[in-house]
Amino acid sequence: MIAIDSTATLKPLHEFWLAGARARLATDARGWLQADDDFLRLCLRRPELSLVAESCPAEISLHQALMASPSAAVSAEQLNAIEDGDARSNFQLFVRFRDELLAAGSLEAYYLSELRGPQVTVPPLFLDCLVATIVGHLQAGCGDAFQVRAAELLFRTQGLTLTEGRLLCADLESLEQRQSSAGLLDVLSPANAVDFFAGDPERLFALDLTHEVSNQLGHGLIFNLTLKHSGLKALAQVLAQWLTHFLGKPVKITPLQKVDDPAWSWHIGLDVQAMRLLNDLYEDRPVDSARLAQLISLFRLDLPGRYPKPIYLGLAMTAESRLKLKPQNLLLNLPAELALLG
Fold this sequence. Notes:
With 342 residues, the chain is of the alpha+beta class. Helix content is 41%, strand content 17%.
């Protein structure tokens, strides 16, 4: 089970993760999550909305009123009375987000409504909070540390490093803090999975995104060993859960090292770099070695009974070795026949 209890040390988005993982939210007939006052209080505890020493009396009054009753009506006069322009804007955004979220009926319905529009009308942070909560809900009760760690990629930017032929990813913000304080980095393994679930804030666990490891056997021989506990396999399971949750029917996603399909007809990039790269490869445009080196993995998506051909997915890092996975891409860029966002 997910048993990370050191909530005082968790970053704000992980509070939303735990709200989903601990089944704090009710679900509707589809299994979609319904926002309640406790969820809205999580939003109000975000750094962007929390009170600070400089908060004016109007901001303090409004924040306290909303913490007591998060769904209470807020007047334009209450918002306009906030002296600081940034704070006023943040509360205006929260009220609009809250009202639209409650009107939508579920976190998932609101999330899809934002994706359907010509442009996203709320800051990406609000959508990351929704993703963290939904993903946490999907991982509730999961005892696979690799899968739980992989699920964080859907809402936390990762930093990547190539070490002894292995591609490791770690939470970027935590990684930068460790580098400044000389903290240790653990590579997640079956041996330390218990430590991962213990949630020690002093330990940072990297996920291995390597397809296979090459062992030198001497005499020029190389033995390629496929990783039994693959971060890519765990990520594929998480992505399949995510898409199944929205489609309502099971899908299968499998990591690939290459696409060897003359009938390749559809692809989806799981991030900006991967989408551009797959588009260029599909159109047979030249791609230099530096861009190809940014490709972390390919995946095959199969939708039995829903779509007759495999859909290929790509995952890539930036030139600065960063990874910002966009789970919405799996929903936005499906073939029209699936009509999830029609």
